[in-house]
Structure formats: structure tokens, C-alpha cells
Amino acid sequence: MRFCPNCEKVLFPTNNQLYCKGCSLFYVLKNGSLVVKNDNDLLSEINLAGFDDNNFQVEYKKKSDRDTGNSKPQKASYLTFFPYEDFRKDQERIIKQIEKASIEKKNSLLAAPNGTGKTIIALSALLPLAIKKNLKILYLCRTHSQNTRIIKELTKISTHLRNNDINIKVNGLSIRGRNEMCLNEVLLSLKLNPRESMAVCSDLRKNRSCKFFLNLIKKRDQYDNLINISPEIFNKPVDAEDLIKFCMDKKLCPYVLSKFLLK
Fold first, then answer.
1. DSSP the chain
2. Which residues touch 53 (CB under 8 Å, ≥6 apart)?
3. What is the pLDDT of residues 61-99, one digit of tens each?
4. Burial (CB count <10 Å: 0-12, 13-18, 19+), residue 210
5. Which of 76, 91, 129, 154 makes an SS bond possible with 80, Cβ 3.0 to 4.6 Å?
6. What is the per-residue pLDDT for 46?
7. ∠32-33-34 over CA atoms, to 5°?
């Protein structure tokens, strides 16, 4: 086991390299030294004389100490967002393939059994590009339980980033159909199909007959950002069930609130 000389966290082995999740730095052994690299150039070298698993004594030299050039900040990679200590079989290879395809604007299709870790594979592969390009990831699922799984993995990623002092914010929101999120007693009592529900919902809002929608509009007018309605809830990944419970307590429309938050 080796440790990062910068933050002293355990280094993560991957493809003949060592990676620090705390600093987002890659290390390789070169001529007896632990060399830290980014995409373009050498950032630092560490003298490994006397370095072993039980004796952490190293000399850390930043590039700025021996070069007048300004080093660039380390770019986030899939390892930055991978919250587990070890990869399952083929996970890293698949992540890299999806990452490469996304950069090249190509589609990826993965068919794999339960337990492969498809959710964390997709998130780890796509989050670096989404962060870099300031994009949103739209994750479509067949069932509510699958949606909940996405939020759980995002929460693990968010906690991992925070625990390792990585200044990247990851957020997410799981949403459901209007019929499954609506709290209006009139609409619920009618037991309509989705198209009919949309029409009734529209009429209720236009006629100012839905207290949940009216309360939400009042809140929207009070805040520049609706996340500030409850920062302790909305500044982290939120499952649809938790959003509905919050709105039920505050008498707000969860369906429209979810649409506002997604903006």
C-alpha cells in the first residue's frame, strides 16, 4: 500500500499507475521515483529512497519549485468520481470505452447482467465530460427502483467527493410522471390517464384552483433559486419519493417543482 505525498491518502492502483482520489493525481514509478503526471507535462517528482508501506518519508517537490512555468490544475477523470476502492471485472475497461465514445459523440450500448455495476460505470464515464462541458446527464429508467438506484450512486459519489476534499459538486433529481407526483385531491380522485391528467392539471392551474401550485409560485417569487427553499435537501441528489414527502409537508406541487429545479 502506498500513500499520496501531497494529502497522505491511500493511492489507488489502476493500469500500472497509482491514483490519488484526494488530489486527482496519477503517479507512476520511473527510475526509482514516484512521478506525478497530468495530460501535458510532469508536475512533480518524489524521491522514494527509504519509502515503504510502513515508513512514509518522502521529499515532495512541486514543479513550481524548479520551473517558472505555471502548472495547470489536474483534470477530473473517471477515477475522480468512482467511489469504490476496487473495480469489478471489466468495469474500468467499459468505463474507458464509454468515455471515449462520448468524447467522440458516438453511442454506446451495454448489455450486462445484474451485479456488473452498470450504473456506476455510466456515471463515472460521463460525469467528467458533463462537468467539463457544463452539461446535464439525462438518465432514463424503466422502473422507480432503478431511478432510486441512480440517486443512491450519485449520493455515494457526492459523499466521496466531499470526504476527499474534491471541489466538485454533483447533484441530481429523480422525477416521475404527473399522476404519480400529483397531490391535488380533485385530480387524484378522477383516476385519469396521463393525457387527461395533463388537461385537468392545466385547467386547475389556469383557474388558480390548485393550492399546491399557487403555494409553489409564491415560493418561486420569494427565491432567486428554488434550491434555497430547503438547501439541506436540494443541495444533494434527491429521490422522487423524498421530494414528494417534502412537498406534501410544505403543501407544494412536487411535479412542477421538479421541473423548476431541473432548469
1. --B-TTT-PBPEEETTEEEETTTTEEEEEETTEEEEE-SSSEEEEEE-TT-BTTB---EEEEGGGT-SSPPPPPPP-HHHH--SSSPPTTHHHHHHHHHHHHHTT--------TTS-HHHHHHHHHHHHHHHHT-------SSHHHHHHHHHHHHHHHHHHHHTT-------B----HHHH---HHHHHH---HHHHHHHHHHHHHTT--HHHHHHHHHHHH-SSGGGGSHHHHTS-B-HHHHHHHHHHHT--HHHHHHHHH-
2. 1, 2
3. 332 333 333 333 346 899 999 999 889 888 999 999 999
4. buried
5. 76
6. 33
7. 130
Three cell numbers, residue 165: 476534499
pLDDT of residue 56: 31
Side-by-side strand order, sheet with 42-47: 12-14, 17-20, 25-30, 33-37, 42-47, 59-62
| Interior angle at CA 162, CA 245 and CA 240, nearest 5 | 20
pLDDT tens digits, residue range 166-201? 999 999 999 999 989 999 999 999 989 989 999 999
Q: How far apart are the C-alpha atoms of 227 and 243, rounded to whole Å?
A: 12
Q: Which residue's C-alpha cell is 471541489? A: 167
DSSP per-residue string spanning 50-115: T-BTTB---EEEEGGGT-SSPPPPPPP-HHHH--SSSPPTTHHHHHHHHHHHHHTT--------TT
Written as nine digits, the cell of 146 is 432503478
Between β-strands 59-62 and 33-37, what pairing exists: parallel, antiparallel or unpaired? unpaired
Neighbours of 32 (CB within 10 A): 9
